[in-house]
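Sanity check

After download, print the first record. It should look like this:
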Amino acid sequence: MMTGWWLRRKRNRIKEAEAGRLDCAGIMERLYEYIDEELDDPRLVSAIRDHLEKCKVCFPQYEFEKAFLRFLAQRGANGAPPRLRRRIFQRLLEEESQS
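Expected C-alpha coordinates:
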Protein backbone atom coordinates (compact mmCIF):
# COMPACT_ATOMS: atom_id res chain seq x y z
CA MET A 1 0.00 0.00 0.00
CA MET A 2 1.41 3.37 -0.99
CA THR A 3 1.44 6.16 1.53
CA GLY A 4 0.15 9.62 0.74
CA TRP A 5 3.71 10.93 0.65
CA TRP A 6 4.75 8.33 -1.92
CA LEU A 7 1.76 9.05 -4.15
CA ARG A 8 2.40 12.80 -4.01
CA ARG A 9 6.04 12.22 -4.88
CA LYS A 10 5.12 10.01 -7.83
CA ARG A 11 2.59 12.57 -9.10
CA ASN A 12 5.20 15.33 -8.78
CA ARG A 13 7.66 13.28 -10.81
CA ILE A 14 5.10 12.83 -13.56
CA LYS A 15 4.28 16.53 -13.55
CA GLU A 16 7.98 17.39 -13.73
CA ALA A 17 8.46 15.05 -16.65
CA GLU A 18 5.44 16.41 -18.47
CA ALA A 19 6.65 19.94 -18.01
CA GLY A 20 10.25 19.05 -18.84
CA ARG A 21 11.29 20.84 -15.64
CA LEU A 22 13.73 18.40 -14.16
CA ASP A 23 16.65 20.33 -12.76
CA CYS A 24 20.09 18.91 -12.04
CA ALA A 25 19.16 18.01 -8.45
CA GLY A 26 16.09 16.11 -9.70
CA ILE A 27 18.21 14.26 -12.23
CA MET A 28 20.80 13.26 -9.64
CA GLU A 29 18.03 12.08 -7.29
CA ARG A 30 16.76 9.70 -9.96
CA LEU A 31 20.05 8.82 -11.65
CA TYR A 32 20.45 5.28 -10.31
CA GLU A 33 16.83 4.45 -11.08
CA TYR A 34 17.46 5.68 -14.63
CA ILE A 35 20.72 3.75 -15.03
CA ASP A 36 19.14 0.58 -13.61
CA GLU A 37 16.09 1.05 -15.88
CA GLU A 38 13.75 1.03 -12.87
CA LEU A 39 11.66 4.04 -13.90
CA ASP A 40 8.20 3.06 -15.03
CA ASP A 41 7.14 6.37 -16.57
CA PRO A 42 8.37 6.74 -20.17
CA ARG A 43 7.89 10.53 -19.98
CA LEU A 44 10.24 10.71 -17.01
CA VAL A 45 12.78 8.50 -18.76
CA SER A 46 12.60 10.74 -21.81
CA ALA A 47 12.94 13.91 -19.74
CA ILE A 48 16.02 12.53 -17.96
CA ARG A 49 17.59 11.36 -21.22
CA ASP A 50 16.97 14.77 -22.82
CA HIS A 51 18.48 16.55 -19.83
CA LEU A 52 21.55 14.31 -19.80
CA GLU A 53 22.12 14.87 -23.52
CA LYS A 54 22.23 18.64 -22.99
CA CYS A 55 23.63 19.18 -19.50
CA LYS A 56 27.39 19.56 -19.19
CA VAL A 57 27.15 19.16 -15.42
CA CYS A 58 24.99 16.04 -15.17
CA PHE A 59 26.29 14.07 -18.14
CA PRO A 60 29.83 13.56 -16.78
CA GLN A 61 28.36 12.42 -13.46
CA TYR A 62 26.07 10.01 -15.33
CA GLU A 63 29.04 8.61 -17.29
CA PHE A 64 31.07 8.24 -14.10
CA GLU A 65 28.27 6.41 -12.29
CA LYS A 66 27.78 4.02 -15.22
CA ALA A 67 31.52 3.30 -15.37
CA PHE A 68 31.66 2.84 -11.62
CA LEU A 69 28.79 0.35 -11.68
CA ARG A 70 30.49 -1.57 -14.52
CA PHE A 71 33.70 -1.64 -12.48
CA LEU A 72 31.87 -2.98 -9.42
CA ALA A 73 30.10 -5.62 -11.50
CA GLN A 74 33.38 -6.81 -12.99
CA ARG A 75 35.12 -6.94 -9.62
CA GLY A 76 32.16 -8.63 -7.98
CA ALA A 77 32.09 -11.35 -10.62
CA ASN A 78 35.50 -12.58 -9.46
CA GLY A 79 34.43 -12.90 -5.85
CA ALA A 80 36.53 -12.21 -2.80
CA PRO A 81 39.72 -14.21 -2.23
CA PRO A 82 39.30 -17.13 0.19
CA ARG A 83 41.52 -15.51 2.83
CA LEU A 84 39.40 -12.36 2.85
CA ARG A 85 36.17 -14.37 3.04
CA ARG A 86 37.55 -16.28 6.07
CA ARG A 87 38.53 -13.03 7.80
CA ILE A 88 35.10 -11.53 7.21
CA PHE A 89 33.35 -14.68 8.38
CA GLN A 90 35.55 -14.81 11.50
CA ARG A 91 34.78 -11.17 12.27
CA LEU A 92 31.05 -11.82 11.93
CA LEU A 93 31.30 -14.78 14.28
CA GLU A 94 33.19 -12.65 16.82
CA GLU A 95 30.58 -9.89 16.66
CA GLU A 96 27.79 -12.45 16.99
CA SER A 97 29.35 -13.98 20.10
CA GLN A 98 29.68 -10.53 21.72
CA SER A 99 26.00 -9.76 21.30
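If your output differs, re-run the checksum step. Summary of this record's structure: The chain has one domain: 4-98.
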